[in-house]
Design a protein that fits this description.
With 298 residues, this protein is an alpha/beta fold. It is built from 7 helices and 12 strands. Bound molecules: zinc ion (ZN) (2 copies).
């Protein structure tokens, strides 16, 4: 593959800073039973929203084994295993362990993946501890463009050896996404269309939220990118209802859904946290997005 042939990024979501929303969220959630320590983040004026956070990088033509229009085939009955492979650069290990309520941090990704694959017969293989993930050598760089990310994935992802096994590759990087030579200091994660490749930018995640929320933010971003990787919204997965926010790319019109393009900064992540605590449901996808995925399973 010629890396020089990578097309431009087709979608670049506006970065959304919401210092006021942040402060409002701090106050309103105070009456919503988030613990005092969780709320101890007044004074920070910066918030990156989940999707402000996300850039969906362009699909790669000519050398892709999974054309974008075939992304949804991951849900078909001839697939019997879907593997989420997670690597990390030194210093960029993902958060693992448990949330305060005892739920496993990676249980969130697991529950959300299970929601999308609820009608599929495939077994989902999702790591939950660092032992299940791998630290990899990555040439020390401050910023990584789409081509760099694809190169890292191709050098490190495990061969699947069977059409019945499908993989989504995630790499946590100790650096920023680079676009047109400029580091994107507010991009939390990217999904590379049609390739099943996700990159997560640890320094941005670390700065996007106060410590008690970081693991939740990280999981939320990963779930959002996972949604893109399997074809949401209308990006490989056919729509089953009118919820595609086409103006904003492959996103969802449902504000309660993790695929919504522009949340109210960190306040929406807090909404998710509150919902998880109060309903016991970890599923951050709205039912429209879940329905698209369920319908793609035959
Ligand atoms: Zn997105
Ligand atoms: Zn949705």
């Amino acid at each position: 593959m010629l890396l020089g042939e990578l097309p431009d990024i087709i979608e670049d979501e506006a970065v959304h800073e919401a210092p006021l929303a942040w402060m409002t969220a701090s106050r309103t959630t105070g009456s919503r039973r988030l613990s005092a320590s969780t709320l101890n983040f007044a004074g920070r004026g910066f918030a990156a929203s989940i999707c402000a956070a996300c850039i969906l990088a362009g699909s790669i033509t000519g050398c892709s084994t999974t054309p974008q229009n075939d992304v949804a085939s991951i849900f078909r009955s001839d697939v019997d295993e879907v593997i989420l492979e997670v690597d990390y650069q030194e210093g960029a290990a993902p958060f693992v362990g448990d949330f305060r309520n005892g739920t496993q941090v990676w249980g969130l990704t697991e529950d959300n993946a299970n929601a999308l694959f609820g009608a599929s017969s495939a077994m989902l293989d999702i790591p939950t501890t660092l032992d299940d993930m791998e630290e990899i050598e990555v040439a020390s760089e401050q910023a990584f463009g789409s081509a760099d990310i694809v190169e890292i994935a191709e050098a490190n992802r495990s061969p699947l050896n069977s059409d019945a096994r499908r993989g989504i590759y995630v790499v946590f990087l100790d650096g920023f996404f680079e676009r047109n030579g400029t580091p994107q200091r507010q991009v939390l994660g990217v999904s590379i269309n049609g390739r099943g490749i996700i990159a997560m930018f640890k320094p941005v995640i670390e700065s996007a939220a106060p410590a008690p929320l970081r693991a939740f933010v990280e999981q939320s971003v990963l779930i959002h990118e996972f949604g893109h990787a399997v074809g949401l919204v209308n990006s490989g997965l056919p729509l089953t209802s009118d919820h595609h926010d086409a103006e904003n790319g492959a996103h969802c019109t449902n504000r309660q859904c993790v695929m919504y393009h522009q949340n109210e900064g960190i306040s929406d992540i807090i909404e998710f946290a509150v919902r998880v605590r109060e309903t016991g449901s970890n599923v951050l996808f709205g039912e429209e997005c879940v329905d698209d995925a369920l319908a793609a399973s035959d």
